[in-house]
Amino acid sequence: MKLNVKALLTIAVVVIVALVGVIVYQQLQLSEAQKQIAKLEAPVAKLRVGFVYVSPIGDAGWTYQHDRARKVMEKALGARVETKYVENVPEGAEATRVIRELAASGYKLIFTTSFGYMNPTIKVAKQFPDTFFEHNSGYKRAKNVSTYLARFYEGRYLTGIVAGKMTKSNVIGYVAAFPIPEVVRGINAFTMGLRSVNPAAEVKVIWVNSWFDPGREREAADALIAQGADIVTHHTDSTATTLAAEEAGVFSIGYHSDMSKYGANAHLTASTHDWSAYYIKRVNDVLDGAWKSEDVWWGIKDGMVKLARLNPAVPKAVADLVAERKQAIAAGTLHPFAGPVRSQDGEVRVPAGQTMADEELLRMDWYVEGVLGKLPK
Amino acid sequence: MWVKLEPRAEPSRAMIYVSPLLAAGLTLATGFVVFTVLGFDPLAAFHAFFVAPIDDLYGWGELGLKVAPLSLCAMGLAVGFRANVWNIGAEGQLTLGAICGGGLALAFPDTESAWLLPGMIAAGVVGGMAWAAIPAFLKTHFNANEILVSLMLTYVAALFLSYLVFGPWRDPQGFGFPETRQFQDAATLPIVLDGTRLHAGMPIALAVLALGWVFMMRSFLGYQIRVAGLAGGAAQYAGFSHKRMVWIGLLAGGGAAGIAGVGEAAGPIGQLLPSISPGYGFAAIIVAFVGRLHPVGILLASMLMALLYLGGEAAQMNLGLPSAVTGVFQGTLLFFLLASDVLINFRLRVVRRAPGRVAPTERAT
């Protein structure tokens, strides 16, 4: 059969033009209708709250928890706020522009949720003295810049107890991002909890030098399992470690988010973050004119650190022990770094009867006894 | 086969100007469909991508802030690409430039000397060139593939920077976080446009572009490079040294990327971080080709690329467009731009019956 190519092409072009025409027409109608609606809705003065995220929101992880809290906050405050987020914003020079853009577009309270946003936040805050900024995990503050962080180590300590009771091989694998105090503190707190119930257990750490790299996290988890770890945990953003454990038939302990749907059998529990109470409080502070620059470090007591549901494989006695220690931490009668705390080489860093001061916790750059290998400096 | 690509006897003059328009049209049409299907207002999306980022002076400053490193890297790469020297490692050379320039600032924490900045830029050039000299040396002595070597060195450079920032150069007052201390004023590029972040890197980039134009179009060496790229055999016959082309191509790319690296470290960042570039060195490869390896084209192409970087954020902020969708849209534009350029050297011909089609009976054996 002979086809007339020119005729076909002409028809195709006509069809495409017609389609585009119809869509344009509909769009114009639609935007007209939207304008009408906008006119009808009376303008209400709302507090505009901006969020800057370092990675895409995804289904689990650091940014996911922040966005979850944003939604809870938005729901709680209803018509009084309007929120907006920008995801996947690189740290450094890029961040300055995004934060400034939010401030310039009338966002009066801006949460910047990654350590690398610290200097950008401070820079922008100088230019917008009437805007309130909240930087997550940094140490620089200003009149209009607060910092906030969670005592993640309290959750780590509790998950360490679960690991100590559940391990058979007495080797726990730990996939870690970067050797900064935040991560080291988590490893140490986990180890303190672990050895408080099982002094023979030890922790092997693999550094992947990335916050989010599912490929490398997976390789590291596989390597740790191959080296005899029967429980793996992680201080990275993806679900790779839990997935690796599920496939290898060992246990895992999640971080940031409840990752149980990625490892129904493997996932023992997770240390999770819940920023919603803090976000609601800070928004209310701005609305009430009571916002002050602060340095907030909340933990289990304030609900900023939580434990995910325990796997049914965890015996009741262990669950009770965890609940009891959790109570004690909340009540202030138990501190994960209560002395005696020894470093790897046996040196006593915190004598018996004392607990580690916050300044010491914030600068932590050494491993406690029970962690294997050397901390990269 | 109904449509066939056929080489043109001569590049089409008309297509040189029509192809970008064609690409723009196709991108808008595709974007229109994609945004509509996803439930976003396409006109608002186009506005967010192409207008919103530069509707005030600050926006233009931000544009310039990205044009500077992009055009610097692309100009340097274009010299090599013209000579068929494929340097893919501008990102790594940029990193080394930042390390060397930034290292100088860290080494003299107290100096307020006016010579510090020029010294940092010079150090950046040397660093970038040194990094590019590795693939050049391996290429000229062992015929190692410069594409692979330069690309792989990018990762080495990134790890080297990580090592320094996590280790010996870490700010002792920084609570162990991976950052160097912030540079003093004398080590920070001055702002050239008040009320913006646009720094002296932009005029430097323009100067390098002008220099690139003079070098490529007016110097004998530039002529040799162009000949080597267009007709390697002819260049050999004329006695133009191939090794020399490799060295010049790579060193030009490394030096320019090194300046871009200093510009980032001493410009908007003001310190060294584990990562100092959002991929300018790689984006510059696209910029160089979209700009057709010509300085003016590179300037325009880097403006477009910079706008895409900014527009992606504006689209997120104004429309709530997910960052993945903005990435798709940006990719579409670049794809159409490069694809349309094929029409300069090829023409589309509609073939009624494909010649040389294998008859079904023959295939049955």
Description:
The complex is a heterodimer of chains A (377) and B (365). Chain A has 377 residues and is an alpha/beta fold. Chain A folds into 2 domains: 47-150, Response regulator (Rossmann fold), CATH 3.40.50.2300; 152-272 and 305-362, Response regulator (Rossmann fold, 3-Layer(aba) Sandwich), CATH 3.40.50. Chain A is 43% helix and 18% strand. Chain A has a 6-stranded parallel beta sheet, sandwiched between helices. In chain A, strands 7-6-8-9-10-12 form a 6-stranded mixed beta sheet, with helices on both faces. The N and C termini of chain A lie far apart (75 Å). The mean pLDDT of chain A is 91. Chain B has 365 residues and is mostly helical. In chain B, strands 1-2 form a two-stranded antiparallel ribbon. The longest helix of chain B is centred in the C-terminal third of the chain and has 28 residues, at 242-269. At the A-B interface, helix 1 and helix 3 of A face helix 1, helix 2, helix 3, helix 10 and helix 12 of B.
Structural class of chain B: mainly alpha
Biggest interface pair, residues each? A-B, 44 and 43 residues
Rg of chain B (CA only): 23 Å
Indicate the percent of residues in helices of chain B. Answer: 55-70%
Measured as a percent range, the helix fraction of chain A is: 40-55%
Instruction: Determine the strand fraction of chain A and express it as a percent band.
Output: 15-25%
Number of strands of chain A: 14
Give the low-confidence spans of chain A: none
Largest sheet of chain A: 6 strands, parallel
Report the strand count of chain B. 2
The CATH class of chain B, by name, is Mainly Alpha
CATH superfamily of the largest domain in chain A: Response regulator
Annotation field: number of helices of chain A: 11
Q: Given the helix and strand composition of chain A, which structural class is it?
A: alpha/beta
How many distinct folded domains of chain B? 1
Topology (SSEs and partners):
The complex is a heterodimer of chains A (377) and B (365).
Chain A lengths: L4 H36 L6 E6 L9 H16 L3 E6 L6 H12 L4 E4 L5 H10 L4 E5 L8 E6 L1 H15 L4 E6 L4 H17 L4 E6 L6 H13 L4 E5 L4 H9 L2 E6 L10 E7 L2 H12 L7 E4 L6 E3 L8 H16 L9 E2 L5 E3 L7 H5 L15
Parallel strand pairs in A: 1-2, 1-3, 3-4, 4-5, 5-11, 6-7, 6-8, 8-9, 9-10
Antiparallel strand pairs in A: 10-12, 13-14
Chain B lengths: L2 E5 L5 H26 L3 H9 L6 H26 L7 H18 L8 H27 L3 H21 L34 H18 L1 H11 L1 H6 L4 H28 L10 H11 L4 H25 L3 H18 L1 H4 E5 L9 H4 L2
Antiparallel strand pairs in B: 1-2
Helix pairs in contact in B: 1-2, 1-13, 2-12, 3-7, 3-8, 3-10, 3-11, 3-12, 4-5, 4-6, 4-10, 4-11, 5-6, 5-10, 7-8, 7-12, 11-12, 12-13
